[in-house]
Amino acid sequence: MKLIGSHTSPFARKIAILLQEKGVVFDFVNDPPGKPESRVPDYNPLGKIPVLLPNEGGCWFDSPLLAEYVELTYPEPAFLPANPLHSLQVRQLEAAADGVTDAAILIVMELQRPAAEQSVAFMDKQRLKISRGLNFLEQAAANQQFCNLPQLNLADIAIVCLLDYLLFREVDVHWPKRCPHLHALFLRLGDRASVMTTRPHS
């Protein structure tokens, strides 16, 4: 099995952590889609990562779908509750974390444009999404509502990838002070091998 992504992609990292936690052997292919020689569009017509290439053939793309594929194909240990409604609650937290991650990525991309072409209003809009999203996730972590529980789940993984990305790209380096329960979750999971070996780097 091959996982195509980049060393800086929080979405590829989410799938890499999930695979490692399930003990699935895979090869990671670093192929940033922004490079002209990238082969990502050969597998995903949208040209986005991550992409998963199973040993039996075919390909899957879009990180929530990849996570579901991995969960269905390798059910043990489970990272979604058996109760369908509880599973949706976890997936909703994953969606919230992914949405905040999307907003952070948009800021990073905007800052890569020439200074004269950057839109402060656009970035402020994304920062508002980040603020609201982190508040939502902080409340869930504080109340242990389908995340920040003793047993790791998919929401926890998505949240950790988001929080690390905010620090790595310096989009929001002050979230640990504003979100103590998320910070505690971040520190608690930081010692796991799957988290340590997938930390973002250029």
UniProtKB/TrEMBL annotation:
InterPro entries associated with the record: Glutathione-S-Trfase_C-like (IPR010987), Glutathione-S-Trfase_C_sf (IPR036282), Glutathione_S-Trfase (IPR040079), Glutathione_S-Trfase_N (IPR004045), GST_Omega/HSP26 (IPR050983), Thioredoxin-like_sf (IPR036249)
Q: Where do the GST C-terminal domain residues begin and end?
A: 83-202
Q: Where is the GST N-terminal domain?
A: 1-78
Q: Which domain of life is it from?
A: Bacteria
Q: Name one GO molecular function term.
A: transferase activity
Q: Which SUPFAM superfamilies match?
A: GST C-terminal domain-like, Thioredoxin-like
Keywords, sorted A to Z: Transferase
The reply on keyword Transferase is: yes
Record's GO cellular component terms: cytoplasm
Q: Which NCBIfam families match?
A: PRK10357.1
Instruction: State what protein this is by name.
Output: Glutathione S-transferase
Q: Which organism is it from?
A: Plesiomonas shigelloides 302-73
Ranked from the top, the taxonomy reads:
Bacteria, Pseudomonadati, Pseudomonadota, Gammaproteobacteria, Enterobacterales
